[in-house]
Description:
The structure holds 2 protein chains of 2 kinds. By secondary structure, chain A is mainly α.
Amino acid sequence: MAIDTVLWSRLVTGLTLGFHVIFATLGVGVPLMIAIAEFIGIRKKDHHYILMAKRWSRGFVISVAVGVVTGTAISLQLALVWPNFMKLAGNVIALPLFMEVFAFFFEAIFLGIYLYTWDRFKNPYIHWLLTIPIVAGAGMSAVFITTVNGFMNQPEGFVMEAGQFLAVNPVQAMLNTATFSKVFHVLSSAYLTGAALLAGIAAFAMLRKGVSAYHKKGLNLMMAVVLVFSLLNSLAGDVSAKFLAEHQPEKLAAAEWHFETESGADLILLGWLNAEHEIIGALHLPKVLSFLAFGDFNAEVTGLNEFPPDEHPPLLVHYLFDLMAGIGFALLAISSLYFLFVFWKKRNQFNKWMLRMVALSAPLAFLAVEMGWFYAEIGRQPWIIRGYMRVEEAATSSPSVRILFFVFLLLYIVLGVICVLVLRRLFNNNPADLEMEKWLKEKHDQSAKKGEQA
Amino acid sequence: MSYELIGISVLWLFLYGYLIVASIDFGAGFFAFYARLTKQDHLINRLISRYLSPVWEITNVFFVFFYIGIVGFFPDTAYYYGSALLVPGSIAVILLAIRGSFYAFENYGSKNNIVYLFLYGATGLLIPASLSVALTLSEGGFILKQGETVSLDYWALFTNPLSWSIVGLAIVSVLFISGSFLTFYASRAEDHSALKLMRNYALFWSTPTIILALTAFIYLGQHNERHFQNMMDLWWLLALSVAFFMIAMWLLYNGRRYGLAFIFIMLQFFTAFFAYGIGQYPYILDPYITIHSSATPPAMGFALVVVFIGGLCLLIPSLILVFKLFLFDADYVKGKK
């Protein structure tokens, strides 16, 4: 019965985080895209880019709302579902949580101002300046929250005495060994995903309604961002793998199905395990794992068998890892191909197959983010605070958590479906080209009026 | 002054801030829905949405801020309240989620969807009702610790007149605060029809507010003698509160200086809220948690206070900017911008 409640607690939290992370990623990624589009629009005096920023921010605010409420949900669930975790770790992680709220507060204030002041400043750059606190606030929220996750993987900055964390140094806890690689990977993947989504939408619109100047500009711009951030993100992934190899070898070993410690370890792609834990049907890349883990083809990589069996993460994480990394490279390949076509004049980057691939990369990017987080969380099992507290020690003892799982499932389905419906109505009833015409006509009328007055 | 005392004072101040801004927001949701039902929405809904659109997220953040702060300064609260409140807390979370998202759906997406507006309006009353339960619980007698398990005695909670009077007080004060704020906002916008309607709402909800406040106070005396006595020792704060209420009523009734009237209502709640809070000192959860027994280590307390001051230096100018742009910019309020 005790195990059961723990499982339901994990499911509730996994559900909330799995849903929240979609909107959290959007919340971090999209503001940067809005800022870039508006800046280029003002710079080039091109109304298409300004309209892009306007339309994106209009959709963005709806996703922010869902992000805010699910973020509130997860922050409260930390205490409601994991009371023992908060009792133990509250002393140490309160600081980044507190700072996260400030960062978000800051972002929310300026987002409110940004949305309602499009035509209130004479100098358009003043309105653009408002994007800086939004981008910074969103980015810092991600940084602070990620330090908490880093702490759960690499708990530092305290002394454990009599079942309590004493001599707490909250700053050291925030700047734990896991923080840098995690923050880097979270930010690069959020910007990558935000850009991939907006590029995917532009590609999708062109597939359905034909090529238009507005969508062409949007696609070119966003694919450039995708290319930059998929490069950075691959680098971040590499940094993360090297961090794991050194500091959390069981997590990497579980993801790579690397059981025996050896030098010159093979990288294993996909495949499956038989009853004796032998790997079947996998692709072996000789010595690549050693290279990825330490930058040396002959380095020794710690195997999972070095750890007591009750501290092994589930081996399922292998697939999560492969899928995440595979998608990461696919996005890099698609964006590289796109720019190859741009510069190689014989090919048209707006051909149907290219657009289809770009459109597909949007959901793939989100899938990769989900897989990455599930890998990060399941790969830490059985610990909630690695080495200090197991998941089953942290969970609530209340059996009601099972019913709550279904209630929250229903809530997220309803919110998700309505969010998509509202967004579709918002944009389908008001296509970009039509809005452009209307807007230019209004501007024209206004300047005509001013001309008359003068 | 010790960190835990600074901590609890700041948090209580934040909770007061939440009480005011959230009441405005919750009540506005209800009024918007009620006005639609009674076909008076053309009078006030534009006014309401004009105020709420830029500020709704800020309200939610106040709440999360308080919650994270109290867990940070007093980690034991997470354990006791967290264990006991799994179900009611989750219900509050769901209500907050519904409210926030449907507000955005209604406001930025499909305008004039009556179902969305209903959800927005109904949650505006249910959320304060459910959150106010936490205040009742802190009085003790409802959260029980047996061995290592902490549980909530639902039967005692639901049959206790104190909990119902606090729920009632929460709902009517939401409507009263919100009504009087929107009266001020309407007068600022020089929107006379909205002003008349909102002033009626504010006057209507004033009497139940004071009656339920008295009722809750009496039941508190029966439930927690210590807290009641402490508050009686602070009689001058309570007297001030009543005096501020009278002045506000006089201003509202005479139909002038609505801004000042709202300030007096804020002061009325400020004095009452602090009399209540100081009276509960040093308990956070009677009898299990006091601010001394559960305080975070000094290093963390210091870090939190530093971050808090730094954060305020960032936020107060930004909030002033928001107020300048949306609340005190007469042209914006009148809908000319």
